[in-house]
Write a structure and sequence with these properties.
Number of helices: 5
CATH topology: Four Helix Bundle (Hemerythrin (Met), subunit A)
Order of helices and strands: HHHHH
Number of domains: 1
Strand content: under 5%
Helix content: over 70%
Shape: globular
Number of strands: 0
Length: 175
């Protein structure tokens, strides 16, 4: 079953708008000003660990979902991929809360500065790219546009894996 073209365009436009808003909001929360007295008003020091756990779980769910689709277990694949999206969304909420109540990112003080900043930069750029890619991939699967779903999933999967794995690596390097 395929979705009519007009509906498809509508939902893709919604995905692009939502992706832009999320990316702008996250950038503002990290780089923008905060109200006086907000930083430290709530203890969010545990959230980086929570974020790394969410990224780790996302990685496991993505790999499992990939294995399941290769085994043609479509229904359980859907459950795992929607769960991966859920843990990614939970990460995003936790990340936003952390950065709202804690000003700026933690500074890297290790011995692998070039490697760290390469990983961080590529992680940030691909995290912004993965938002619309993941949403479009899920949309294509949800609406049973399987050829389009497979085509974009071949791009989305490795990028989403990279973002979730490097999220854990960044945590390990910082903490």
């Amino acid at each position: 079953m395929s979705v009519p073209i007009k509906s498809d365009r509508f939902w893709l436009n919604i995905i692009y708008i939502v992706s832009g808003i999320i990316t702008a909001a996250v950038a503002f929360l990290i780089l923008g000003p905060r109200p006086e007295g907000l930083e430290g008003s709530i203890d969010v020091s545990f959230l980086p660990t929570v974020n790394a756990i969410f990224n780790g779980i996302t990685t496991i769910l993505l790999v499992t979902g990939f294995i399941l689709i290769k085994q043609k277990k479509i229904q359980i694949h859907k459950i795992f991929m929607l769960s991966a999206f859920g843990t990614s969304a939970a990460f995003l909420v936790s990340y936003v809360i952390y950065h709202w109540f804690k000003s700026g990112p933690k500074i890297y003080t290790g011995d692998f500065t070039t490697l760290y900043y390469f990983i961080l930069l590529t992680h940030i750029l691909l995290a912004a790219v993965i938002i619309p890619l993941a949403l479009i991939t899920l949309y294509r699967g949800w609406t049973s546009q399987l050829l389009k779903h497979r085509k974009i999933a071949k791009i989305t999967f490795p990028l989403w894996m990279y973002v979730s794995v490097t999220g854990v690596l960044i945590y390990i390097m910082l903490y």
